[in-house]
Amino acid sequence: MSKPLTGTDLLEKVRELGNLSKEEKARACGYYTVTKNGIERVNMMKFLNALIDAEGIELDSTSDGQGRGGRSASYRISVQSNGNLLIGSAYTKKMGLQPGDEFEITLGRKHIHLKQVGALDDEE
Q1: Whole-number Å distance between alpha carbons of 21 and 37
Q2: pLDDT tens string 58-116
Q3: Which residues form the SpoVT-AbrB domain (predicted)?
């Protein structure tokens, strides 16, 4: 397997594998490497972390800003040096947005309104 499974593909495969051991499930989902000597090593930590991510469980939500927790949503953004406004993944995850979702942009004097293409008018 070239790339380990992630997300819903990972969850479906783990359910499909039923009664296999954790190690066998990890191996079947691509979470292993082969050493120079040809020995197969299962990477359980990466497998278990991928499962946690796939389930949407946020263990780092109580982070104090250190480590891999990332930043929490501050509901403020700044214009970048190239003139772009970047809306981070904390906001898109919170809104349940997926790659490819489209929005209409309406500009006000000092605000930007995004309306999801195809969304009902009463949704906000």
Answers
A1: 25
A2: 776 554 544 555 566 677 788 888 888 888 777 888 888 888 888 888 988 888 888 88
A3: 74-119
> CB-side exposure of 42: number of CA atoms within 13 Å?
12
Q: What does pTM read for this prediction?
A: 0.48
Which residues are within 8 A (CB) of 41 and not within 5 positions of it... i.e. 6 or more apart? 32, 33, 34, 35
Q: Cα 61 to chain center, whole Å? A: 14
Beta strand 32-34 pairing with 112-116:
unpaired
**Cβ count within 10 A of residue 48:** 13
- Please state the domain extents for the chain: 7-58, 76-124
Q: Residue 73: name the closest of 54, 87, 52 by CA.
A: 87
Tokens of 14: 């783990």
